[in-house]
Amino acid sequence: xxDGLTFSVDxxxxxxxxxxxxxxxxxxxxxxxxxxxxxxGTATVLDADLSRDDEMRKRVGVLMENNGLxxxxxxxxxxxxxxxxxxxxxxxxxxxxxxxxxxxxxxxxDMVGNFSTGMKRKLGIARAILHEPEIVFFDEPTxxxxxxxxxxxxxxxxxxxxxxxxxxxxxxxxLDEVQRVCSRVAILHQGRIRALxxxxxxxxxxxxxxxxxxxxxxxxxxxxxxxxSSLGGIGELTWNDTVLGMVLVTTPANExxxxxxxxxxxxxxxRMQKRSLEExxxxxxxxxxxxxx
Amino acid sequence: xxxxxxVAGKEVRQLxxxxxxxxxxxxxxxxxxxFTGPAVLxxxxxxxxxxxxxxxxxxxTLGIFMGYLFTxxxxxxxxxxxxxxxxxxxxxxxxxxWLGKVLGVTIPAAILTYFSAVxxxxxxxxxxxxxxxxxxxxxxxxxxxxxxFIAAASGLLGFVQFILGMRENQILNFVIIFAIIFxxxxxxxxxxxxxxxxxxxxxxxxxxxxGIILLTAWxxxxxxxxxxxxxxxx
Lengths: 293, 234
Known about the structure:
The structure holds two protein chains of two kinds.
Chain A: E1 14-18, H1 25-32, E2 60-63, H2 75-85, H3 91-101, H4 117-129, E3 135-139, H5 147-163, E4 167-172, H6 175-181, E5 184-189, E6 192-198, H7 199-203, E7 209-215, H8 221-231, E8 234-240, E9 243-248, H9 253-262, E10 267-273, H10 277-292
Parallel strand pairs in A: 1-4, 1-5, 2-3, 3-4
Antiparallel strand pairs in A: 5-6, 7-9, 7-10, 8-9
Chain B: H1 3-17, H2 19-34, H3 37-42, H4 47-80, H5 83-88, H6 94-128, H7 136-163, H8 166-191, H9 199-219, H10 225-230
């Protein structure tokens, strides 16, 4: 059951909706699409309640887990059917264009039942966007796909968001995928949003920034440690072979590099250590489960 | 083209491409059409009256069976496979969706039923040795009332399949199939040899079919996307 869910998605944004199985992601999506009614509160998409407004659905695209395709029809027949339902002008031309967009031009006359999972997914994406919606909802778009097909679907989503002002609502528990394509995420656990922020902010701001330098000459290790310690505003200095790790509390990374270089320390590499979305997600889950317990 | 016709066109196309379903329907029509010949000779009241009785109830029962067979493909299968969820997000009302599907079932089922009627007439004529033509009320019944009954049966069944869960639908299917077998086997005995098809009988049947269609069309206002989605299989 969803509990006090409040969020908004900006126009043109790729918004990731994360959470474990049973967290309420699909239920939220169904409520937004007007397929389920909320027990209380309101859900609007493009300022409209989709459960009451059939015409508004023309402006929304959807890719559910099953692609919404008919196995006994060809790829072209499937797309043309939806194009006519959405009253797309010049449906035949648009279908040709989209088959080309998803790389299925040669398979247009083949039955969808003979397609691989990846091909069906590509066709499902084409179906979801054929009427050029303003917002498109993707439910686990890479679920069950091999790595190559996952990469292809991610590229398609990025192309969509870059090509126009299409807003993308991505329902997923594939953290790597979300980190790669989304600008902002919400993390859902047991029906409640536990984190809601931009990916950039979540993976850096609000956290102590990790930083490491790799020395070209290991014999300079002691000297380098002394220089860094003298700077202040730095904590948790650690050594690992030739890599000197630290947490930047107040001193920025460029000052550390500058001090080391000025004092003749030879550097091979300097690297900011951002937390991955996976680490953040797991932290949020642990906190949520701790809170629930 | 209206959205209703778009849905209907897709359903017809999909049914025509379902070889197993079409083959079953075709065999059913041929078997029942051809094997009625001896019944025309054996029946009480003379060949003309038996032909009229068969044209009235057998063609109707075959039509309803075709409707039943195709409704499962058009309504239930879409729900079973979950494709309906995507369709519910499309810009068409539930009534348009329902009506498109009913038309998509009725058109091919009526064509096959006409074919069965032609076979019954041919088989009866071959067995009697002269051309047997159904009476005018029976012809009207076959051409107009039977498709109306197919639409009524398909509409009502489709509506029920929309609102019921998959297990309830399985039970319902068993009940319907046994009811159809019962109708085919015993209707003639139930209606008796004195039964004759008049305009009044055909008119009453037509009225009943239209009544069911109108009632179901009215019931679709109570159909909700939520009900369909919450009865989808996991």
